[in-house]
Amino acid sequence: MGNGxxxxxxxxxxxxxxxxxxxxxxxxxxxxxxxxxxxAEIYEAAGRLDDAADPGAIMWTINTxxxxxSSVGSVAPTASYALxxxxxxxxxxxxxxEWYWVGCHMNVMTPEGExxxxxxxxxxxxxxxxxxxAQQAAGWSALDATVATNLVTVTVDMGPGKRSIHRRRPNxxxxxxxxxxxxxxxxxxxxxxxCGDDSLRGSLDVLPLAVKVNDGDHMTxxxxxxxxxxxxxxxxxxxxxxxxxxxxxxxxxxxxxxxTPGIYYSWPQLQVSGSIAIDxxxxxxxSGTGWIDHELMMSSLENPDGAVHPVPFVEDAxxxxxxxxxxxxxxxxxxxxxxxxxxxAMNDAPALSYGYFLTPNNGGWDAIFIQGKxxxxxxxxxxxxxGTSGPMVDIPVVRGxxxxxxxxxxxxxxxxxxxxxxxxxxxxxxGAICAEIPADYTDLSGQYADGLGYMESVGFESVASYxxxxxxxxxxx
Length: 477
Known about the structure:
It comes from Lysobacter hankyongensis. It holds the Pfam family CrtC. This is AttH domain-containing protein. The protein is mainly beta. The chain has a single domain (about 85-475), classed as AttH-like fold, CATH 2.40.370. About 10% of the residues lie in helices and about 45% in strands. It contains five helices and 25 strands. The strands form two sheets. Strands 1, 2, 3, 4, 5, 6, 7, 8, 9, 10, 11, 12, 13 and 14 form a 14-stranded antiparallel sheet that branches. Strands 15, 16, 17, 18, 19, 20, 21, 22, 23, 24 and 25 form an eleven-stranded antiparallel sheet that branches. Helix 1 packs antiparallel against helix 2 and helix 3 packs antiparallel against helix 5. The longest helix is centred in the first third of the chain and has 16 residues, at about 10-25. The model has no long low-confidence stretch (mean pLDDT about 95).
């Protein structure tokens, strides 16, 4: 499909199907069909997609505003989905929101011999604009139904007074509207995911993974991630998601539950080589460590075990409905990751209700499910539209951890993560503010090790503020 092929009628027809699926659910308090908030505005904006300057970004905003209905008509992994590798390393063309996330910390040298450190955050993502039935009815390919983006920030730390953050310029690609995006599918001999001039290219087992970003003179990335000496290429990752119960070191099932069915697994403690150039300065990597996530996070109108509550669009948490996530690669070869959820009112001490502590073993990982306490410290105020004025969003930039453990294993972990630079914010293709902040981890328990990691904050802007912005954006398209 070329740039002139109309997509608006197809998307509008799909939106009618989405509305029908929502209307099929009754609000138990009113016995009336559920409605999608602001559906008329969303539908009208879809009708203007063919005239929009950036149809991919508008489509991403529409998908976000559909909330728990954003995956209607797409295939979703069920609790009985059987993960199979290497096939599940590839993108899932008939499923919804999916991404590869890469975080790296690197010791670097400039051509003049100056040494310092640089961090990289990259998240290459895709959504489906329409469901599979709508795709078939329209005669679209899976790529026509795909909207892709690549989000990149680089933090440079060359010492006091020489610290800065650099954001890649927006890169949203919708092949149905002439954009360039492609990805490998099960059965392929190697992994690839291409978004415009950026790409991820790996082997059958993903590693080594070549990461390339081409944002002209502003930013180029040319790095390779490989397994470290303690792991084997085909077992260098561990399964996250719902924890297995037969062993405290068995890790997860690799699946996430309703109402966000998905797939989740990660590669800790990777080695990094190559170079990064920012605004004319090339930083050659002397040494580095990295982390990769492959995640599919869809939405569903269904609740676990068929429960009525929470009722979609009625009982969603406001004003906050987000999470804080982190990973830390420790200097002794271990690692840990985890998440806390901020629902409803702001909470600066949420439980770390989900996580895994990792120890290398026989070329792979012993992954122990952990829980504990988070302290979200030193909130900084950032503009929700990065680079512009207000509204402001408070995002904590320091994290404390205490009592992080598994009830079957002693030696609770405690520590603190402090930022390399106080800003790690950027806007996603839907305009929402996110933060990915590289951090130094300091062990305070005396039983583990220091390390390096990333602190992620998502969903800290009030729902009302984001919704007002998004509807104005749709109206103007």
